[in-house]
Every structure is written in C-alpha cells, then in structure tokens.
Amino acid sequence: MPDMRPTKTPVSEQDPKIRARNFDEVTLGYTAEEAMAEADRCLNCKHRPCMSGCPVGVRIPEFIEKVREGNFEEAYEIIKSTNSLPAVCGRVCPQENQCEGKCVRGIKGEPVGIGRLERFCADFMADKEQAVSPAEPNGHKVAVIGAGPSGLTAAGDLAKLGYDVTVFEAFHTAGGVLSYGIPEFRLPKAIVRQEVAGLEKAGVKIMTDMVIGKVLSVDELMEQGFEAVFIGSGAGLPRFMGIPGENLIGVYSANEYLTRINLMKAYRDSYSTPIKQSRSVAVVGGGNVAMDAARSAMRLGAEKVYIVYRRSMDELPARKEEVHHAGEEGIEFLTLTNPTAIVGDDDGRVVGMECVKMQLGEPDESGRRRPKVIEGSEHNLECDTVIMALGTSPNPMLRSATPGLEVNKRGCFIVDEASQTTKQGVFAGGDAVTGAATVILAMGAGKKAAAEIDKYIKAQE
Amino acid sequence: MFKIVKKKNLNASVKLMELEAPYIAAKAEAGQFVIVRASEESERIPFTIADYDRQKGTVTIIFQVIGGSTMELAALEEGGSILDLVGPLGIATEYGDVKTVAVVGGGVGCAIAYPQAKKLFGMGAEVDLIAGFRNKDILILEDEMRAASSELFICTDDGSYGTKGFVTNKLEELIASGRKYDLVIAIGPVMMMKFICEITKKYGIKTLVSLSPIMIDGTGMCGCCRVTVDGKTRYACVEGPDFDGHLVDFDELLRRNSAYKKQEQQHICRLTGGVR
After folding, report:
1. Chain B within 8 Å of A348 (Cβ-Cβ)?
2. Which chain B residue lies closest to A248 (C-alpha atoms)?
3. Is B275 exposed, middle or buried (0-12, 13-18, 19+ CB in 10 A)?
4. Does A401 contact chain B (CB < 8 Å)?
5. Which residue, among B23, B34, B216, B248, would best test binding to A if mutated, counting the most A CBs under 10 Å from its CB?
6. Quick one: B243 and B121 in the same domain?
7. Do A237 and B263 touch (CB under 8 A)?
8. Strands A426-428 and A228-231, bridge-based pairing
9. What's the CATH code of the domain at B234?
10. pLDDT digit string, tens, across residues A73-102
11. Does one domain contain both B113 and B214?
12. What CA–CA distances, in Å, run from B221 to A22, A237, A416, B189?
C-alpha cells in the first residue's frame, strides 16, 4: 500500500537569510531515507501519465520503484538510459508543468517529488566510479554545433550508437546555458563538468573556442567528412525594450550579468572579470532568468532587489520554486509595473527607472491577460542597476554565414518533422528552432534529432 | 591551449605576441578581432588582429599593458601558452573602391592601423599613414608602417620625433594642402577618433573607425558592447568593429568604457600589492 500523505517529503534547504548572501546550492537534496519515503508515495499507475509529460521519456514509475526498494544504482541506470543529464534535469526542469504536472497524486495533494528523486539518484551516483566506455565505432562522423543541453544530448545519444561525434562550442567551457546562464546556487558547475566528462568518457569529442560560422563554416565541416551536422546553437541574443536610457552604465542584459557571474566567476575574488557592486537592482521580466539575475544580485550584496513585471504574480512564467525561493530571500515583486525610461546622472550612470502601473485587460494570443497602462500612474523607482531579462532570440551569426539555411521571421531555424533544416544533412533543435524555452525541451529536441540523424545516415548507405 | 610562438616588447608598455592558432589564421582578415583568456581566472578581452600568417598558422596581437588583465597577459613568456583564443570575430573591414586613403593611428592603435595600411597599399591604393604618439620613446612599428604606405607622417605630442602636434592637425593640414582622400580610417583612443571624425565630416570624407568597447563573448550574446550608431543600438562584436565614424556616439562609448574603472583599480592593487 503506497504512502498516502498528501504532501511531498520535505527537502532540506539552506536558510534563506544565509543563502541570500552565498552562492552555494540552495536545495540540499534528499537523504536515502527521505528518497525512499517519497518513492513510497508513487501509485505506480499502469497508464504512466507522468511519462507523457517528460520530453526525454524517462521511465518514471520504473525508476521510482527501484528507489523505493533502495536500489539506487539501478534507478539511476533507468533514468540514464533515456536522459543524458539526470543531475541537471532533477534540478532545473519545470516539473510542475511536466512529469509532476501529470501525476495523479497531484489532483488531491502534491504530486510525487519526481524531480527531487531524479536528483537524488544522480547525486547518489555522482561519486561512484561509473564504467562508461565508448560504443563500438560505426565509422560515421557527426558534428554538433553548440555544447548546450540540446547539443550535449544529441552528442551523447549519437555516441551511444557508435558515431564519431565532435561538439564545437563557441565559449571556453561546455554546457551552454548550464554554464553561463543558470547560477551555481541552482546548478553547481561541478555537476555540469561531471555530466560533460561522462559524455567525453563515452567518446564524445568537445572542441571549445570554436565559433562555427566564423572559424569554420557548416560546408567546411561537411567537406571534412562530417556526414551530418546538428545545430544546437541556442537563443543567445538578448532583447532590450527600446526605451530611453538603455545604454547607460549599470544597464545589463540578463545574459551579460549572468555570464559575468556564472561563466566568468565575477563573484569570486580571485577571478578578474568585474561586475558592478550594486545597492539597488531592478530586474525587468518574470521568467527563470529574471529570478536567477535577481537572486544573484542579492548574493552580490545588493540591499534592494526588485522584480519588475508587467503582469501579475499569477502570470509569472518562472518555475514556482524559483519564485518562492526568491521571495524567501528578500526579492521584492513589483508586479503590474512596466518601465518607460531609465534615468542616469551626469556621468551616464543609472540612478532610477521611470515606471507606469498596469492593469490586466482581455486575454491576448498567448492566453494571458494583456496588460494595459493605467493613466497617470507614472512613478520613479530608485535603483543603480537595471537588468533586462526579457527573453532572447537565436543568434543570426550561423545563419548569415551558411547559404541554404533558412529561418522564420523570429530568426529560428526552419526544420521539417525529421528535425532537418532547409539544408540537406543539417539538423537543428532546441532554442535555435523554438526560440528561448527550457533545458528539458532542448534536450528532447536533441534526442529526437539524434534518432533522425541516425536514420538519415543509415539511409545514405 | 595556444602557444606563444613569439613575444617582443615594442616599447616599455606595448607587447607583441604571435600565437599558434592555425584555424584562426586560415580565416583572419584585416579588421577582425580575437578574444583572449590568458588563464583560468582571467577576463576575456578582445584584441584586433594585428597580423596573421596563414602558412605558419599564427595570429599576432599587439597590446598595451594598461590594466590588470593586460598585466596578466604580459607576464606570459615566449614558449608558454595562453588558455583560450577565439576568432576571427567581427566583420572584416569593407573598404569599397578606394584609390587614395589616409590611415590614422594613435598610440597602440597604430598596431591596428598598420595592417589596414598594409592591406590597402598591397591592393594598389595610395596610402598616407599618419601615426601619433605621446613621445619618441613609445614609437612602435616605424619601419613596418613606412613600408606599408606611400608616405608616413609621424607626430608626437611633445615634438621629440617627427612633427610636433596631434594627428588631427596633420590630417587637416594634408587635406588643406590639397590631398584628396576617398576614405579615412582612424584607429586609436576614442577621443582621437572623435576629433578625426569632426574634421573629416567638415570635408565630407567617408571615415571608418574601429571600436573596442568592453566585451565578454564577442558573438552577440551579452550585449555589453552596444554602441549607438546613427541613433540605433548596434553590437560592435557582430555588427562591427568598424563603423561609419560620422554616425558613432563617441561620448557614450567613452562613458561605457569607463564602467569598471573603480574595480579595475582594485584589481591592479590586488595584482601588484598597490604598486603601479
């Protein structure tokens, strides 16, 4: 008989007051006993609704069954067989919209803590020697552009099938958004390094510092003998609002702010990359990236950190857990508020932001109620730093350097149902195709593309 | 890892480094830049490519030791290596159909003005190269610049070598004396480029400037390098680094380049124990 407690087994976390000033991981994860107790809440439904919510098809009830039995290694193997980055997904997936959102236990209480269990299994295995060895080579070469979630997933799956895979990464470190975007306190970089090292053990080659489209073209890769190319170049181009004052000193894109902190380690004394020592920070936007930027600013010592969002708390697109954590850490939510200009002093440094209050009107095409300006609600928000977290678009660099590669009006690569772009042998997936989305959707796209590339190459033989 | 094949002091604070980077050397063109990360804890900093050798597979950067990161880089020796080198980034200079050109370099900017002159001179253009330095002691690349131009004009602020005065005076003097230029290329400190552009605007001569705002990735991802050109925000890393100088908001660029002055001071203090 399963444990019918309506709530998840609590997971221990760093105290909000303490963690708001350090970059250590917020959530500490389950102990073995806690994991087994939580696994006991799973009803092991025959129709497995949770699985339908997983973009990489993790066999959830099966792995949870193994956790319940205390057989953590086998549980991990089940996860790993379809998910190349379990330690990452357990931490950053928006489970409430995916597996846990479909969980039957969620109807009359809280769903099973699938994300926490996945993380537990990955962490349990983290320090165990795993016997990974390259698959038998099949004699075919595939190039992957971008070492983010979609590229790494595609590379891992292709390597398992025996392909000789080389991943080309523009930055000096693999991981994509896992390295430059998601902060240490949510996803420790040691975990990303470990997952990448695991792929390398499985035979994946990673070349960093390679900006494809500049140093080598897609055509040149194909001339070098790569029979197929997977583009997982993400959506790296930051958006600004186009309001006055955005080029003042102290205005950052969230990409820049987070890259300085996460990739360049500006928060550590021994690293040279500078970052502004802010007193009062306004983060514009309501997604996960906005939460990450706001919580990072707090950790860097800001006295006041605001989330400025034009809709209400109910529409915030961020994961619930992140919003909850941000609130606990003292981030103030200024919802139904929209900036109209950023104000600077004589030296061109930010001193405030002009805002208006909004009210929600009729639903727009996204189904969310469209915010409208309230007349006469103009007011000034005092701040010395503004971080724009308004979403990102795909980088046009690769497209403009590659004849035959077509994009839609949002700059996203056009692909057919087999993940193939308008250029033969060139596949794409993740944010480069969908626009900015989630780690797990990008991984799902990488996984699908790997299977399609396998089919494509075998069909050429 | 990228091997330092050659390191040379061009003057007391300006260093030349030739780096082994066959992939980049194969593609590099005048006007493009690379991003260097000297070691694990270093910043990523952009340098315009001063030279490249496709046969040897090397690219050369020339830099002035002005802050903590260039101090770290300068501490590396020939035979050693730098951790990361990314490029070639940015758009190569597009000259158009030009017959007579004035290339103006200021200080260490001459290291970048030189390859532009060399390229244009090699293409058969008439090239006047105006090179400005504070004084004789910091003069660099004199022979190289002479060989890459129809005529080389050296100016020093104190008159210790060449003509006493600024490059702006020299350019205006040449224009006033009847020299006709299809194009002016100005590379150096922001103030110098600003004043050169004020002159050429007056005479209606098209002017290209090479901008080096603060950058991180150099691929359009962070937006840190945004500059205002013709009233629009442009990313110098992917849309530049060359822009029409008559349209650039130099004052904003000057301000943005000073964003981390305070931290830079602290960084140097940490590296040198307060001695500068």
Report:
1. yes
2. B256
3. exposed
4. no
5. B216
6. yes
7. no
8. parallel
9. 3.40.50.80
10. 999 999 999 998 999 999 999 898 999 999
11. yes
12. 26, 5, 27, 25
Q: Does A270 touch chain B (CB under 8 A)?
A: yes
Q: What is the pLDDT of residues A226-248, one digit of tens each?
A: 999 999 999 988 999 999 999 99
DSSP-derived secondary structure letter, B92: P
Q: Which of A180, A214, A260 sits opposite B27 (nearest CB)?
A: A214
**Is residue B148 pLDDT above 90, yes or no?**
yes
The alpha helices in B123-259, defined as continuous H runs, are: 142-147, 167-176, 190-203, 236-239, 250-257
What is the interface pTM, i.e. ipTM, of the complex?
Answer: 0.93
Compute the C-alpha angle A213/A164/A136, nearest 5°.
Answer: 170
Strand partners, B104: B130, B186
Residues B121 and B52 in one domain: no
Measured CA to CA, the distance from residue A350 to residue A37 in angstroms comes to: 51
Coil, strand, or helix at residue A251?
strand
Assigned token pair, A438: 């989630």
Question: What's the pLDDT tens digit per position in B53-109?
Answer: 999 999 999 999 988 889 999 999 999 999 999 999 999 999 989 999 999 999 999
Alpha-carbon gap: A275 to the closest alpha carbon of chain B (Å): 8
Same domain, B82 and B108: no
Burial class (CB in 10 A: 0-12, 13-18, 19+), A214: buried
Residue A428: per-residue pLDDT = 98
Asked whether the beta carbons of residue A259 and residue B23 sit closer than 8 angstroms, the reply is no
Contact call for B217 and A249, based on CB within 8 A: no
Which residues of B fall within a CB distance of 8 Å from A272?
A: 41-43, 68-69, 72, 267
Percent of chain A surpassing pLDDT 90: 88
B56 touches chain A (CB under 8 A): no
Whether pTM exceeds 0.90: yes
* Residues B39 and B151 placed together within one structural domain of the fold: no
Do the chains contact at A273 and B43, CB–CB below 8 Å? yes
Domain boundary among B89, B114, B130: B89
Q: Is B154 helix (H, G, I), strand (E, B) or coil?
A: strand
**In which band, very low, low, confident or very high, does the pLDDT at B273 lie, cut at 50, 70 and 90?**
low
pLDDT tens-digit map of A165-199: 999 999 999 999 999 999 999 999 999 999 999 99
Q: For A29-37, what is the mean pLDDT?
A: 96
Residues B112 and B249 in one domain: yes
Whether B276 is in a domain gets the answer no
> Is the confidence at residue A393, as pLDDT, over 70?
yes
- B119 and B234: one domain? yes
The single residue listed with the structure tokens 């857990």 is A321
Nearest residue in A to B32, CA atom = A214
pLDDT digits (tens, 9 = 90+) for A243-281: 999 999 999 999 999 999 999 999 998 999 999 999 999
How much is the mean pLDDT over chain B?
Answer: 93
Q: What is the pLDDT of residue B275?
A: 47
**A-chain residues within 8 Å CB-CB of B42?**
272
Is residue B219 within 8 angstroms of chain A, CB to CB?
A: yes
CB interface of A with B, residues 194-233, below 8 Å? 208-211, 214-216
- Is residue B153 domain-resident? yes
Nearest-CA residue of chain B relative to A247? Answer: B226
- pLDDT for A404-423, tens place per residue? 999 999 999 999 999 999 99
B76 touches chain A (CB under 8 A): no
- Is A124 strand, coil or helix? helix
Same domain, B158 and B234: yes
The nearest CA of chain A is from the CA of B134 a distance in Å of 27
Residue type, B190: V
Q: Does position A131 have pLDDT exceeding 90, yes or no?
A: no
A396 touches chain B (CB under 8 A): yes
| Residue B266 counted as domain residue | no
